[in-house]
Amino acid sequence: MSIGDNTAGPLLAGRGLVKAHGRTEALRGASVDLRAGEILAVTGASGSGKSTLVHCLSGIVRPDAGSVTYAGLRLEELPEKRLSELRRTDFGVVFQFGQLIPELTVLDNVALPLMLAGTDRGRARSAAGEWLERFGVRGQAELRPGEMSGGQAQRAALARALVTGPKVVFADEPTGALDSLASEQVMTALVHTAREAGTAVLLITHDAQVAAYADREVQLRDGAVAPLGVTA
Ligand SMILES: Nc1ncnc2c1ncn2[C@@H]1O[C@H](COP(=O)(O)OP(=O)(O)OP(=O)(O)O)[C@@H](O)[C@H]1O
């Protein structure tokens, strides 16, 4: 069985996650499952713990209690080095403000994760160009991120998140800074590409129109998943 081929259960599962930031309890026993290839929206009010949940599920932050299992591996049991490697090979991330490196061209931004994984520069740049093409921003490849529109920069950030062929993409408010047209273009590109590549997406959003692109939605309230159909 290869990683991600665990058809018997979820690809990624957080169970009873608890995480405090100082005296603020951001997560209070949150549990969530993500199946291979699934697009899951995590919604909830500001401060309900969405970003903290993603940080725990993606292994950036270790929870105070509870567990995260990815493809049968308990993240809390992995040494830091193995966890970093897993994050690099199996996970992609995209944030509200793309966070492309401003000094590099768009093409080099997208090529970078491949180069960090050992691909030579020429091949990395050629693959990066193909991914920019898929996201409709190849024409901007030689620009710096600051020279693109917000929507174009987010599509380039998605290309960077997907270029290594991750099993899971964590997208934390990827359209949060965009107008509705750009937001639609980014979501259409993300959903289309994720489906094509079989990538699971954990999508954080407070926007119902964005959540509607997902296969399923869970709502966080006060650091835990709210029962279905119950609104705040
Ligand atoms: N690094 C931190 N230090 C202190 N408190 C934090 C930190 N990160 C988050 N918090 C607090 O934890 C709670 C949950 O924050 P989190 O960012 O996970 O929520 P969120 O649902 O993603 O919010 P938003 O939609 O506003 O981004 C909030 O009360 C927040 O103020």
Automatic annotation (TrEMBL):
Residue ranges of domain ABC transporter in the record: 12-232
Coiled-coil portions: none
Residues passing through the membrane, by range: none
Keywords: ATP-binding, Nucleotide-binding
A GO cellular component annotation in the UniProt record: plasma membrane
Pfam families recorded: ABC_tran (PF00005)
Gene Ontology molecular function: any one: ATP hydrolysis activity
Protein name as catalogued: Putative ABC transport system ATP-binding protein
UniProt organism field: Streptomyces griseoloalbus
Upper taxonomic lineage: Bacteria, Bacillati, Actinomycetota, Actinomycetes, Kitasatosporales
